[in-house]
Each structure stands twice: as structure tokens, then as C-alpha cells.
Amino acid sequence: MNSETVMKIEKAIRNMIDAFNERDTELTLTYFYFDENFLSYGPDGSKTTSREQYRQLLENEFNKLAAKQIEIVWSKISVYRTMATFVGECYLRSTGLGAQDPVPIRFTAVLREINDRWKINQLCFSSDVLTQAA
Q1: What's the whole-model pTM score?
Q2: CA 20 to 30 Å from 123, out of 27, 57, 101, 114?
Q3: Where do the domains of the chain lie, and which CATH numbers do they carry?
Q4: Radius of gyration of the chain (CA)
Q5: Predicted local confidence at residue 22, as pLDDT
Q6: One-character DSSP codes across 48-64
Q7: What is the dihedral of CA 79, 81, 82, 84, to 10 degrees?
Q8: pLDDT-based confidence at 27, cuts 50/70/90?
């Protein structure tokens, strides 16, 4: 596996998480590739298949998670030509007063290389804790 490719994928994921943590809907959306294969599952089991649905999901998540940040603590990337998978262990951490224990989250994504940029085409955030609370 080409280390330059892995670095580009890691950067795309980090940038998307940073945009998410900043609650920047438009910037977050730029890290996704929306086509007929786009698919996203949220921690509550919600499914989105279009840019507009995903925009709405992001805005809802930003409201629910106002004082929380996603932090990646471990990840693995596999690449095959212009497709890649990203699997990560993350934590959802409180940022405000009264911080709570971090919530573990699994982050799984399929990325596609489009015009020399890696973009997320399928995404799933899951957590036993969040699923039980939903």
C-alpha cells in the first residue's frame, strides 16, 4: 500500500472530523462524494442516501452534540485502487462544564478517489451506548 495514499486518506478523514467538530455543515459536506451509491447510517440507525438528507442529519447531530467532540484514537486503512476502507475507534468527548465519561464510537467508511481527492462515499457511526439511548 502506498504511504502517500494512506496519508491523503488520513488527512481527508481528519479534516472531515475537524469540520464536524467545528459544526461547519458546508465544510463537512465537502469531504463526501454523493452519488447513487452514497449511504450513511447514524448511531441511532437513521439512514441517509442523498446530500440533502445528510445535510439535515448533520444539522440534527450538531444540535444534539453541541458540547461534544469526536476524537479518533485508533484506525486502520485498506486501499484497493481507487477505493479504500477506513475503520476507526473513536470517542465522543464532552467539551463543556460537567464533562462526562467519553462515549466509545465505531467509525467505518468507504472512500473513493475522485479527481485525486479521497472522499467518503459510505459512512457508519455506531455505538452501543448511543444506540441504547436512542
Answers
A1: 0.89
A2: 101
A3: 3-133 (3.10.450.50)
A4: 14
A5: 96
A6: E-SHHHHHHHHHHHHHH
A7: -10
A8: very high
Q: What is the pLDDT of residues 69-112, one digit of tens each?
A: 999 999 999 999 999 999 999 999 988 766 678 989 999 999 99
Phi, psi of 100 (to 5 degrees): -105, 170
Residue type, 61: E
Whether 37 shows a pLDDT value over 90: the answer reads yes
The cell for 99 is: 464533562
Statement: residue 3 has pLDDT above 60: yes
The phi, psi pair for 91, rounded to 5°, reads -130, 140
C-alpha dist (Å) from residue 113 to 13, 48, 49, 98, 108: 13, 21, 19, 41, 17
Dihedral angle sign, alpha carbons of residues 65, 28, 110, 72: negative
DSSP 15: H
For residue 83, which amino acid is it? M
Least Cα distance to 40 among 59, 55, 62 occurs for 55
Q: Rounded distance, CA 68 to CA 111, Å?
A: 25
88 beta partners: 75, 107
